[in-house]
What we know:
15 helices, 445 residues, mainly alpha
Amino acid sequence: MQRYLREVRPTLTLALPIIIGQVSQMLMGITDSIMIGRTGTVPLAAASFGGNIFGVFYVLGIGLMLPVAIFVSRARGANRPEECGEYLRHGLALALGFGLVETAAIAALGTQLHWFGQPPEVLAQVNPFFQLIGFSITPVLVYLALRQFAEAMGRPWMPMAVMLGGVGLNALLNWILIYGHLGAPAFGLAGAGIATLVSRVLAVAVIFGCIRRDPRLRSVLPARWGAPLSASRLREMLRIGLPSSIMLLFESGAFGASAVMMGWLGAVPLAAHQIAISCAATTFMFVLGISIATGMRLGVAAGAGESARLRPIAGIAQALGGVCALLFMALYLLAGRGIAAWFVADPAVVGLAAQLLVVAAFFQFFDGGQVIGAAALRGLTDVKLPAIITFVAYWVVAIPGGYLLGVRGSFGAVGIWAALAAGLAFAAVALVLRFIHLTRPAGRL
């Protein structure tokens, strides 16, 4: 027990600024939803549809950037500082290349959004917003690489401060551009897209400047940014990044598919889904921050050959995630309707969103368990079997179950969310068992 308790403080010390940064990132989406919701149900539904489709591209990029944190942590644990900067340089190359490919794909998809069978009034408003946030994908991926480098090097407060500033700037630009204040035109939903794009571009410039000014980080930056890239290092990063992207795609694709199914049910279920998923995603950021810190700490321990610390680090992370789940479960059960009313005045949307938040109250435990389990396995560079587990959880359990219960069955939006909860539960149990198997005395790092 003492070995476990010793890991509480270092995990929380690293996780706290990451949590604040992750929550701040979600607050940008929450701010958009609240401000867009004041203009009507249809713009909010369009923001939900466009944001969920964009999210698929976003998480693909996140997966490709995860090796930056993993390999920088391992190099730091093995006391090889020169490799930390090289992993950052190669991560930035992946961010730029993949970001440009995704931008082109989003631009092409924007002309074909009718494929998704959404209500005509939603399709009439979504494309300018979708294209604008699509242009932000490259700066988002560059920012993620820089942020993960700073966090893995033990400087998590810097990206947190940058993200907080970005949230404030996004809110200010939303106020100006959505509603037409300070003499600007009232762009409505497109104004939220402009605000997001500008905020993300500026965040990249600020965090890179902060890294260059930090003595500890500057000392490990590459001496030659333009040196030829190492094919073996890129392959090493892609060996982790591609399965991680696929794993995240299975998860985010399931949530995106659930939004599409909500659209089949109508604009009110889709708007209610946007409110509930925004709230659930925000509280999820707390356990996500714990999971990110856990993966980095496990990477440092594995790089240093300290196998005895692996289970205590992961075990205390799961315990902390369980505490967070209890707190947010109580919040959604006691105040779900009031929270939903912050977003929109439509009583039908508020009532349905409150029901979905009841489901969210119970899947907090499963969501936390699966994300911490997945991060722990990534810290051990185990990604292939977790990707298979994730596929089964979301595309064999959650999505078919949501279609049968919510679309074909009589449970509607609540049925779709209940099936998502079942998929999360399967993933949580399977990923934790995989970690236990790998960290047996006869297991491997």
